[in-house]
Design a protein that fits this description.
76% helix
């Protein structure tokens, strides 16, 4: 399941070997053959949300993926993005938090949450949301490298650098938020 999803994503996104329509067809084929597994639904929702910008179409697919396996972080994350794109910011925030509760070290998930939180048009952000993101990023920054191997050191440096950049965005938004709240 996960390998199929990642392979189709690779063919579509990185290799540009198939179109988004072909990727959606393959997701539907997987759903037809394996309707009790979340992967095809998740793949369909991911492509519609992140690439085709059809978030309203993606939502039922992502909800179905979650109903089949609520312990997977990715469908919660993609549902959060889809909900945010359709203006359902309160529900989006809850879905982001569910995803990050399931995988609090997933930097890609945290990055999407930070983008959501630091969007100036998002009027539902709270100080506690920003502090939650700040805590997640601080944990990532403070994690040690997996090993002393060069490969792990480079990955660690990249991960920490990305987390530090995201943390600066969160802290900037937090300062703006606190300063605006201090005004009458």
């Amino acid at each position: 399941g996960d390998f199929y999803e990642e392979f189709i994503t690779f063919l579509f996104k990185e290799a540009a070997y198939i179109s988004s329509e072909e990727a959606l067809q393959r997701a539907n084929l997987f759903i037809t053959r394996h309707s009790s597994l979340p992967y095809g639904y998740e793949l369909y929702g991911y492509i519609e949300t992140m690439f085709n910008k059809n978030s309203s179409t993606a939502i039922p697919y992502l909800e179905k993926a979650i109903s089949l396996d609520s312990m997977r972080a990715r469908p919660h994350l993609y549902l959060a993005v889809a909900l945010s794109n359709t203006g359902k910011t309160v529900e989006a925030n809850l879905s982001f938090k569910r995803a990050l509760a399931l995988d609090s070290k997933w930097l890609g998930g945290i990055a999407l949450y930070v983008i959501y939180l630091t969007n100036e048009q998002n009027s539902t952000v709270t100080i506690s949301d920003l502090r939650f993101a700040q805590q997640l990023l601080t944990r990532i920054i403070n994690l040690p490298p997996e090993s002393s191997m060069d490969f792990h050191k480079k990955g660690y440096e990249h991960r920490v650098g990305t987390a530090q950049q995201l943390l600066l965005r969160v802290e900037k938004r937090l300062n703006e938020f606190q300063n605006n709240r201090a005004l009458p």
